[in-house]
Amino acid sequence: MKDGYLLNLLGSTYNRQQYHRFSNNTHKKLIEQHDNYNVYRLGNMILGLNDKRCNLSCYVNFQKCYNPIIGHHIKQVIIWSLGDSLYELDFDKHILFDYLLPTYGSILMDNNPHFDMERLWKHIFYNTVEMPNVFVYYIVGNELKNYSPCNDDINFEKMILSNKRLPELPPKQQRVKL
């Protein structure tokens, strides 16, 4: 997904086109309902469709993956929200912690920031450190390290949010690429 797509969603004409495209799709499955606001799953996307305003209010895109160390997980989650309501402002945390993490177990994010994703991910990870049964890791080179809130200036290649404790990485010659 390109940054341009997410930036274009801010424009009212393009956003309405996407709203109509997604609202007319018969393959979407309803996840939850709110006043004039419904959340759907469509393939590897989660969509917030605001029927009152006829717009796409929230958007999440992810890829399902498997790795012997992490297990089943999703990666490179893209989250976008208009932020017009309190629910939309908390949409990222709600979808990550109440839907994606329980469903897929782990979320991997490459340090390939786009559309302010690095700020969003760091905010999410800083808030997870005190959460029970949520483990935060970062990868530098071939080392998997536990995340510490004491180190605000982490230069990471990848970050992992998991609902399970991950094993130590095997010796260098047996490592599996994360």
Give an account of the 3D structure.
With 178 residues, the chain is α+β, with helices and mostly antiparallel strands. It has one domain. The chain has helices at residues 3-8, 12-23, 86-89, 91-104, 117-128; strands spanning 29-34, 37-42, 45-50, 55-67, 71-81, 106-110, 135-140, 143-146, 158-162. Strands 1-2-3-4-5-6-9-7-8 form a nine-stranded mixed beta sheet, with helices on both faces. A hairpin with a 2-residue loop joins strand 1 and strand 2 (37-42). It is elongated and about 50 Å long. The two termini are 21 Å apart. The model has no long low-confidence stretch (mean pLDDT 76).
Brief characterization of the structure:
The protein is α+β, with helices and mostly antiparallel strands. The protein has 5 helices and 9 strands; from the N terminus they run ααβββββααβαβββ.
Helix content: 25-40%
Strand order of the largest sheet: 1-2-3-4-5-6-9-7-8
Q: What is the β-strand count?
A: 9
Q: Rounded to an integer, what's the Rg over CA atoms?
A: 17 Å
Mean pLDDT: 76
Identify the notable features of this structure and list them briefly:
single chain, 178 residues, alpha+beta, 9-stranded mixed sheet, 5 helices, 9 strands
Layout of secondary structure:
Layout: H1 3-8, H2 12-23, E1 29-34, E2 37-42, E3 45-50, E4 55-67, E5 71-81, H3 86-89, H4 91-104, E6 106-110, H5 117-128, E7 135-140, E8 143-146, E9 158-162
Parallel strand pairs: 5-6
Antiparallel strand pairs: 1-2, 2-3, 3-4, 4-5, 6-9, 7-8, 7-9
